[in-house]
Amino acid sequence: MMSVRERARKAFQATRALGLPDQEVTPVLEHLLKLFNNNWDLIESEDYRALIDAYFELKENKGEDNRKNVVGDYGESSRLPKRLCLQDSEDQASPIKGSARQILSPEEHGKPSSVNLQQGATFLNKKDSSSSGCSNSCKKPQQQPVTWEKNRPLHIINDITKGTENVKISLVGEIGKQELPKFTYMRDNIIYQDAYVHISLARVADEDCCSGCSGDCLSVSIPCACAHETGGEFAYTTDGQLRDKFLKACISMKQDPEGHDSVYCQDCPLERLKNEYKPEKCKGHLVRKFIKECWRKCGCNMQCGNRVVQRGITCKLQVFWTREGKGWGVKTLQDLPKGTFVCEYVGEILTNTELFERNLKGSGNEKHTYPVTLDADWGSERVLKDEEALCLDATFCGNVARFINHRCFDANLIDIPVEVETPDRHYYHLALFTTRDVRASEELTWDYGIDFNDDEHPIKAFKCCCRSAFCRDVKR
């Protein structure tokens, strides 16, 4: 038989996989042990679902009541989560020493990835009511079976990345409220079909990389060749965040595009897609600031301070079901300083024509993510070929960024083009950085740059639910 220490260690392993802090889980676990008469079977059953559900219920109650001592102390003044509240009962149930699976309905068997405790299911006979910690609304008869006041089972996936990222990214949602998303998780962009993305070491000249560098480029006083591509200085600090001056310039471009330079295509691919025979004049494309990172042909190593995006995700993130009608969203499980790299927007690389044609072939019932147009350098050529007018679509293949919701103007993330393996700006990586300090458990959002009044755009805009005071969707 396992020791108490070993059982506690495994319980913390399960909650850590969801990004739950040990210091917040500890009092919940201790209280459940008292409540269940130290019956570990009830806590361990179904991947610790009673513990996890109690934790989330307690966090919800804390937000509703704004009580500072709920998580930190289960004293007499605190109250038990309402789904674990002891109810008065005329039945004298005997203690259940087996697995919680025994009291589930037959259709609930075989669902280890979900958390589901049926309403009215009796768990044990509580002989000692002195340590119940229940609210004043709960009576305290001599024997009190534990019941679930309402049925709000949870979907929990420990890692949607299937081990492809540096950190696990969990998903938590309520069963019955939504379907689990169906897509293939990819860490890197993939080419769909005819998109022209020619990446070759032979195309990268010595002046396009810092082949003479070694170690960490940020440790030297003279910027390397890659830094010169970013305006003569590095975009990153030695701590791995964006430099404040660079970030402010990018935010200004995003919030006030009319105050910055734009380029105009002689024959714009977007306008050509709207009307192939008589396209209108180009509406203009913002000349965006780029980050040029060092890469494989450079002499520095992978830990170089100018290789932030290509090292991948390091932040603790969680996908969750929002309550504002926005569907799935992403929140951070840790505090993020201003200028922190969160993730890259990953998807299929398509031409705009391919995306439009694929959407036309669909049944119309598919739920699409809004595509990202890679137009930061479209105006550099007189005529851009259709296979060079690229976009990213994460509907079928993508990473955690596909769940990040849109917010007009004052989002806490900003997208910045990043060059890694090619100097060809027709294709680039789209990296998301924090625009300010972001607190743990805060939802992450970014401005997709949608013109909600453009009814002729090949990809129809969604109804905006961002609730920002600066929302651009006037028709909402």
UniProtKB/TrEMBL annotation:
Spans annotated as Disordered: 85-149
Bias (Low complexity) ranges: 130-140
A GO-annotated cellular component: nucleus
Main location class: nucleus
Cross-referenced Pfam families: Pre-SET, SET, WIYLD
The keyword Cell membrane appears for this protein: no
Composition-biased stretches (Polar residues): 113-122
Sequence ranges assigned to domain SET in this UniProt record: 315-449
Key words, A-Z: Chromosome, Metal-binding, Nucleus, Transferase, Zinc
Molecular function (Gene Ontology), one example: histone methyltransferase activity
Location within or outside the cell: Chromosome; Nucleus
Classification via InterPro entries: Pre-SET_dom, SET_dom, SET_dom_sf, SUVR4/1/2, WIYLD_dom_sf, WIYLD_domain
Annotated Pre-SET domain residues: 213-312
Protein's UniProt name: SET domain-containing protein
Organism, scientific name: Gossypium harknessii
Lineage: Eukaryota, Viridiplantae, Streptophyta, Embryophyta, Tracheophyta
